[in-house]
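Researcher: We plan to redesign the surface later, but first we want a full-length starting point. Tokens attached.
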């Protein structure tokens, strides 16, 4: 996979202040972190999303990284596919240059994992994107939020704000996930997997 062509890095979440601090919105938080690193701000786009264009990261050798679009759908999570597809069409992004950042129950809180393709693991945002694109073959940055405690329903858990303890760790988690997304774009998926999947 070459670095030619525009990348689209999408962070999933639900719109509005009520959801802003939810675990389910961690993908959107990561994209806001990337925007802040690039000294840019996401603005409303006709694709029913907030978006910004920038050069992401730094290539080996120090040159500015590839052209990328950051996006956060303005739809609810289970309708993420429409805005993502519209952004891809507008900016001429191919599925192999789409990186979706999302919360992941099956990964311990604080861990970041990456994969291309595969199932959606019951994640409504991913399911909507796969359905709209007609392919599952895009890259996912999976941000671990862990399993709910006790008998709490997973749907309730993801729509709750991070706990005070988790909030202390959140800047590190957002930083790691943003680093992972940057590295996919600048160095490729394999290099990013080797860095983020290795035991520290």
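Model: Full-length starting sequence:
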């Amino acid at each position: 996979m070459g670095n030619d062509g525009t990348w689209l890095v999408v962070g999933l979440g639900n719109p509005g202040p009520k959801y802003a601090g939810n675990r389910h919105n961690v993908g959107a938080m990561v994209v806001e972190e990337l925007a802040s690193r690039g000294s840019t701000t996401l603005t409303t786009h006709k694709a029913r999303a907030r978006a910004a264009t920038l050069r992401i990261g730094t290539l080996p050798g120090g040159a500015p990284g590839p052209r990328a679009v950051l996006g956060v759908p303005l739809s609810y999570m289970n309708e993420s596919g429409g805005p993502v597809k519209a952004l891809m069409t507008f900016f001429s992004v191919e599925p192999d240059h789409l990186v979706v950042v999302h919360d992941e129950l099956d990964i311990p809180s604080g861990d970041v994992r990456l994969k291309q393709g595969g199932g959606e693991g019951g994640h409504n945002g991913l399911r909507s994107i796969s359905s709209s694109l007609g392919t599952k073959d895009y890259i996912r940055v999976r941000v671990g939020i862990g399993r709910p405690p006790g008998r709490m329903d997973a749907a309730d858990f993801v729509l709750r704000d991070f706990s005070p303890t988790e909030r202390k760790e959140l800047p590190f988690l957002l930083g790691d996930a943003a680093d992972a997304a940057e590295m996919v774009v600048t160095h490729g998926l394999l290099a990013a997997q080797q860095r983020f999947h290795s035991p520290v």
